[in-house]
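User: Can you predict the 3D structure of Hypoxanthine/guanine phosphoribosyltransferase? Sequence below.
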Amino acid sequence: MKLEESLKKCPVIKRGEYNYFVHPITDGIPLVEPSLLREVACRILKIVDFSEVDKIVTAEAMGIHLATTLSLYTDIPFVIIRKRSYGLEGEIPVFQKTGYSKGQLYVNGIKEGDKVVIVDDVISTGGTMIAIIEALKRAGAEIKDIVCVIERGKGREIVEKKTGYKIKTLVKIDVVDGKVVIK
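Assistant: Sure. Here are the predicted structure tokens for Hypoxanthine/guanine phosphoribosyltransferase:
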């Protein structure tokens, strides 16, 4: 499959002590091939039931292309959790911390009773996902499913234990000796 093959070839860089893999799905570089994006979307569509979903929710920035593609396939609108405040009525600020960054995220466009699927590119520490889940619960949304394309580290387990929500992933990886390894 293209996703796994492309992961095996992607470069790994250091961000402080964090080994950061650089991949089209997670970083938009070096090049996002339509066939790779299509494969990822089709694989998500096979494992997530969108039939009772009102909105697809993703975090800025690297979930946007995933949510856009899924929205085009399903005709379900999507909401982007942004890194800056717009000051709109009902905006929900939420703090998130990852393995290499931290800061505020802002949720807009979610109403009480909305049925949502959360889509993200990668889950590694779980910090962003926990923040998103907490914000959506505060807004009164019903989380129908959660899917992350790439799983790395213990983030999925941490989120599931802390929130009670199961997270689906397409591929699990690790970084060993400066290379991505498929598990």
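Residues 34-47 form the longest helix (14 residues). Residues 14 and 20 are 6 Å apart (CA to CA).
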